[in-house]
Amino acid sequence: MAGTVFTPSLEGMKSVKSENGVILTKPFLEVCKLILPVLDKFGSAMSLVKSDIGGNIARLQTKYDTDPAQYEHLYSLVQVEITAKTAKSSSSCTNGLLWLTRAMDFLVELFRNLVEHPDWSMSKCCTNSYNKTLKKWHGWLASSSFTVAMKLAPDRNKFMEIIGGGGNINADIEKFCSSFAPFLEENHKFLASVGMDDLKAS
Question: What would the pLDDT profile of 102-111 be if each residue is shown by its tens digit?
Fold first, then answer.
């Protein structure tokens, strides 16, 4: 296989925004989906995160599929719920987008750590990024299951070898983080503007 496990998502990111700079629902969800195979390489350490991301993608996708024209823009999924006053419900698309964005923050931070701290063990990279991103939003239960899962993190060198494929993995990771992080930032800004960026896990 030419390229690394990040190659498909790097390709996909080129079409996340419309010509006038709006994040589009389908391409954004596609890129998030393309990251899931990377998580498979972590083995059971990431199964929690993977099912969480997968569930939130499916929730947003299902809503999008009901009316692709109405929900072409990612934030329209949220705006409809805000008008209907259902945005704060735990099964809302707003909640789905928020947690999807947070999980992606965690992954971007984790991939960054792998490039910037070559001497850190995998579980240190995971724990550090978890503390920086998801921890403050998680209750005790989620936090402790996460801590347990991180102990199952694979050997770092083996992992890098597996995800490297036939490309330059460090360059691709850097490209991925610098291209994807601005989308996440935009999501947070939008969610904050409608008062939805600080919801905690129930």
Answer: 999 999 999 9
